[in-house]
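I have been asked to look over a protein record a colleague put together. Alongside the sequence sits a line of tokens, each denoting a local backbone shape. Please read both lines and tell me whether the tokens look consistent with the sequence. Take the sequence as given and treat only the tokens as open to question. I have pasted the whole thing underneath without changing anything:
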Amino acid sequence: MDFFISLLVRFAYFIDSSKRYRRTKEFCRTFLEHPTSKLKFYFDLFMVVLVILSVLFLLYEVKTPELHPFMDFFINASLVIFVIEYLLRLWIYSDNHKIFLERYEYALDNRVTFSLFQTIRSIISKKLEYIFSPLAIIDLLAILPSYRPLRFLRIFLLFRIFKLFRYARSMKTFTTIISEKKFELFTLAIFAGFVIFTGSSAIYIFETNVNPKINTLFDAVYWSIVTMGTVGYGDIVPVTTEGMVISMLLIIFGVAILAFLTSIIVSSFQTKLVELKESRTLADIERLKNYILVCGYGRVGEVVAKMLHDDGYAVVIVDTDAGKIKLANQRGMIGILGDASKSKLLGQLGVGKRASKVICVTNSDEMNVFITLTARSLSKDVDIIARVVKSHHKKKYLLAGANFALSADETIGLMGLQYVDQPISYAALNEMLTENTGVVFESLKIHEKSYYVNQPLSVLKLQEKRLLLFGIVRQGIQPTDFLTYTIDDKIFYFNPPSDFLICQEDMLIIMGKKHHINILKKQSDKRPLK
């Protein structure tokens, strides 16, 4: 026995350390259970089509036992797929080796005897927990109609239709509501059962020897349920005064029970629909790449998001105010209600993976700093731009990990000074910033395969394109003999001469019409000429 336990322990540790086993199980979990996985979306779509077609073929087989060979093959293939899916879900529900190792290590640490029987019972009980879950029962009953020697099992064909509950998110919401409200529904079912039993007994007593349509207690129960549901088929009608009184009471109780049941379902749906909408929004965000996350949709955030959205950037807005999120959605942008300082939310939004930039523009320095810290802890590469509400807090933003910290007060002060000192310059700058003249500032990054690498600035032909080079930002190059500025670890070359050589990874700051700048960008993407 000890030798057998030793083999099981070694095997459990081998599985626990196997990367291939973990990758395979994680892959199965992803396409079977992960709510935002694309694999799961396509798998669910495939299974919905498979379930519908298999049901149609099985219904067709009821009247025509001799099926076409293709239909026969399809039914058998769908059965194999359903069985494999059932076994995979049973496999990923729990990790048997982890349960085994936990009990084994607990026995070693506490110096107690390791019980193989208790361990196996724990493993089996965990699997039985899944087997007796509602969706697993539906999965199992959906397989039974394909077992042809037992024709009576075809009644379970209905459960193959119920299998759609697993793949449709809205149907899952309905099952979740039933699970969460099981106490209320159970109480209502007990009351309804009491009313049905009382009404059936009473109508059986008063009508059984008078009404030819009521001969058994089952007839009375059938009449009570139909009457309570206010269906009124008319096949069984009470003929005595007592029976009519019972009918009226059953109708009143039936309406009250249906109204109570409706109120339970509707109130639950109102809360669940919000969660369902948020999950769909997260799924839409999951499909975005290199989008900009704007945290805060106040006065500043509204302007920033609008300008980015108008320029064609993918923008996602996060705010704690439901009214602002609704306004953002009405303007064609994706908005999600939540606290952007929470690492869980930013992790779901893919900061550093799908979100390439984070802009913190709430009305609170504390909130902006918290968002900056959280975003930086999730990714070292994401660009963080923060709005400084009070200028003396600017250093805190840089220490928290912000790439840029911009103070609105300083900007407004500089603009006011420019207006007082140089009103014409202020007017020109204001027109450019508001894009009333169509003139904008854009940055053009020179990648390694760009046409302009190792070419002089004269190759750009900026004058012909009606563009103006404001300057060039370069990494790790010492200043030259003309005007330069140091920005962190980068050098900014202001208005360089025409023979200045363009290097890889240079950032060109250009001013001009937007469509002229786009032409220059397209030319930059061309391969070098031989």
